[in-house]
């Protein structure tokens, strides 16, 4: 497994996002024991970057990850996120300093750890200036509860403002063969600032695996049913994309998922 750096953290170039094990996708939460085995097997295979969030469930995904990593915490770079759950009953998103502090204490307890390697603001909170949020996160870094700070789905302006308050180690945005929006502005800005990039949903939320051909393949409560790209009619038109990926995969003796991941890894070199 090749490695990369986020801030000063060495991480495997392929990480594992645990969200779908507990929330939003078909089959989520139906077999925690199997999810634990998947997480542990990933670590055995060299995956050192594990990603979760308090909003996944909420809470239960962090508990799941904590259970899977018990006794192996020091083998991984552990990332979680705050800001999409309000602990005061306020509006969502909530990245107020008070909410951030309370959220982090809860995440530490659920994860069974004394520090979070990368803590992301899950989504920008229009009600709290980014400077206040990052200031609170910086205080948590000083306290040793957080090692590095990240942002998720933030604009270039927000990233620059945040980076002036405290160094930002990483930015998460959706990025894949199917979703390439970060290429126009986000990626150039991150290169300029020396900030790492973590692409989430590299398989197009399962679409690029080639296994999703109809909405009937999804549970009734699957989040993708509400996503315009998967809406009836759009899904059928978008299948032409995955069929092209599948054709390439057949030529090289790979799966569509392997081709999609290979393309994504090539964007970072090596």
Summarize the structure.
The protein is of the alpha/beta class and 270 residues long. Helix content is 37%, strand content 16%. The longest helix is centred in the last third of the chain and has 19 residues, at 234-252.
What does this protein look like?
The protein is α/β, with parallel strands linked by helices. Helices cover 37% and strands 16% of the residues. The protein contains eight helices and nine strands. The chain has a seven-stranded parallel beta sheet with strand order 3-4-5-6-7-8-9, covered by helices on one side. Strands 1-2 form a two-stranded antiparallel sheet. β1 (3-6) and β2 form a beta hairpin. α3 (97-111) crosses α4. The chain is globular and about 50 Å long.
Topology:
Elements: E1 3-6, E2 9-12, E3 16-17, H1 32-44, E4 49-51, H2 60-68, E5 77-82, H3 97-111, E6 116-121, H4 130-143, E7 146-152, H5 156-165, E8 168-174, H6 186-193, E9 196-200, H7 234-252, H8 256-267
Parallel strand pairs: 3-4, 4-5, 5-6, 6-7, 7-8, 8-9
Antiparallel strand pairs: 1-2
């Amino acid at each position: 497994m090749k490695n990369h750096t986020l801030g000063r953290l060495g991480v495997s170039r392929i990480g594992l996002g645990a969200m779908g094990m507990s929330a939003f996708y078909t089959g989520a939460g139906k077999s925690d024991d199997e999810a634990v085995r998947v997480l542990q097997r990933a670590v055995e295979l060299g995956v050192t970057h594990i990603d979760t969030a308090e909003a996944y469930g909420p809470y239960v995904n962090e508990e799941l990850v904590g259970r899977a990593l018990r006794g192996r915490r020091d083998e991984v770079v552990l990332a979680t996120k705050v800001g999409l759950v309000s602990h005061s009953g306020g509006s969502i998103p909530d990245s107020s300093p008070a909410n951030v502090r309370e959220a982090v204490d809860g995440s530490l307890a659920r994860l069974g750890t004394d520090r979070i390697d990368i803590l992301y603001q899950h989504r920008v909170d229009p009600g709290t200036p980014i400077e206040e949020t990052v200031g609170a996160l910086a205080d948590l870094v000083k306290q040793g509860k957080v090692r590095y700070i990240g942002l998720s789905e933030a604009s270039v302006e927000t990233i620059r403002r945040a980076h002036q308050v405290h160094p930002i180690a990483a930015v998460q945005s959706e990025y894949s063969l199917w979703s390439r929006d970060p290429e126009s502005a986000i990626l150039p800005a991150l290169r300029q600032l020396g900030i790492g990039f973590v692409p989430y949903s590299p398989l197009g939320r399962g679409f690029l695996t080639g296994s999703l051909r109809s909405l009937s393949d999804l549970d009734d409560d699957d989040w993708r049913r509400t996503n315009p790209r998967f809406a009836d009619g759009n899904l059928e038109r978008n299948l032409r994309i995955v069929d092209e990926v599948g054709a390439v995969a057949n030529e090289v003796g790979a799966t569509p998922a392997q081709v999609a991941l290979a393309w994504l890894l090539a964007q970072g070199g090596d």
